[in-house]
# Entry
Amino acid sequence: MAKIYITAIINTKVLLDDYPQGGEVPDHLISMYDTARRTKENGYGTAQLTTKVSPGDHIVNIAMSTEPLDRIQIIDIQSEATKKGGLFSKNGGKKPNLQDDGTWLSKVSPISSAGAADKYTVRFTINGSEIEYFWDPKYEDDEEGGI
# Structure
């Protein structure tokens, strides 16, 4: 099983489509835009998670260290932050979105509260091989993608 650190959770494609030239990106999105741009250029560091994820669903537009993948099936989701808020939560971490069964309570982006989480793990099966992605804040600013 390969382990790949994710350094940021952002919607790479949407950011780059909405602000293709940069420049006028809102202040609160600048760091995410920069990560998206760097990911597109270098091919690592960022995964796009949809705002409703459950086992059996698919995630599109994943960029990682080897190559972008168009379609990945989720087989399991584990999060240490679901009980206490933090990642995948809303209202300042007061109400977790990601439930124990891997479903979401609402369509709230994990971006704003990602820094509050300890870490989380998502396991995928890609072409028959299981890959485990996990996020840990100590790798958040790793320019090399935390791999």
About this structure: The chain has one domain: 2-139. Residues 18 and 104 are 25 Å apart (CA to CA).
